[in-house]
Amino acid sequence: MIMKIAGAVLSIFIAMTVMSGPALALTFREPAKGSAERAALMDTLRPAVEAEMRGPVEFVVTTIRVTPNWAFVQVEPQRPGGGVIDPEETGFAGESDMMDGLTIYGLMGFQAGRWNMIDHMVGPTDVGYALWQQRYGVPAALLGLE
Questions:
Q1: CA atoms lying within 13 Å on the CB side of residue 36
Q2: Does residue 51 fall inside a structural domain?
Q3: Containing domain of residue 132, as a range?
Q4: Would you tell me how many other CB atoms lie within 10 Å of the CB of residue 31?
Q5: Within-domain flag for 12
Q6: pTM for the complete prediction?
Q7: What letters, b where the CB count within 10 A reaches 16 and e where it falls short, cover 46-68?
Q8: More confident position, 66 or 1
């Protein structure tokens, strides 16, 4: 009887460890301000955003989570020097009333020795980036969806 109980407890423990192992093992880093890696991530995101914002941008980073293969960022765009971007002077003119500001969410992957843009979205009114977990196989915890 004791052996059966011990076996059952051990089986539950192993199952819980296997199921939670990858989530617990995922650790992030936040590249320091001014670091080459942080600059590389922002430079990967910048061309797409500058095209949409119709001009140069700087980013105020709200969230940045990096693993060896993935990076997820949440940033606020601004004009160089801190200037406010008017949504009606961007590629979103006429649509800005259906957006939740200009907050940008970006997903990058590290491959061939550099960061590459995977996807991004501007001003979603819901958690649209939640789809990235299924679409690209990115860990939920990286997206803050654990």
A1: 1
A2: yes
A3: 28-143
A4: 17
A5: no
A6: 0.82
A7: beebeebbeeebebeeeebbbbe
A8: 66
Instruction: Answer whether residue 16 is part of any domain.
Output: no
Report the alpha-carbon distance of residue 70 to residue 81 in Å, rounded.
29
The rounded distance, in Å, linking the Cα atoms of 77 and 20 is 36
Q: Render pLDDT for 15-25 as a digit per residue (tens, 0 to 9).
A: 333 344 444 56
pLDDT in tens, 31-69: 999 999 999 999 999 999 999 999 999 999 999 999 999
- How many Cα atoms sit within 13 Å of 80 on the Cβ side? 5
Spatial distance between the Cα atoms of 130 and 96, rounded to a whole number of angstroms: 22
> Which pLDDT belongs to residue 5?
47
Q: How far apart, in whole angstroms, are the C-alpha atoms of residue 56 and residue 79?
A: 6
Q: SS3 for 120?
A: strand
- How many domains would you assign to the chain? 1
Any domain includes 19: no
How far is Cα 125 from Cα 102, in angstroms, rounded to an integer?
11
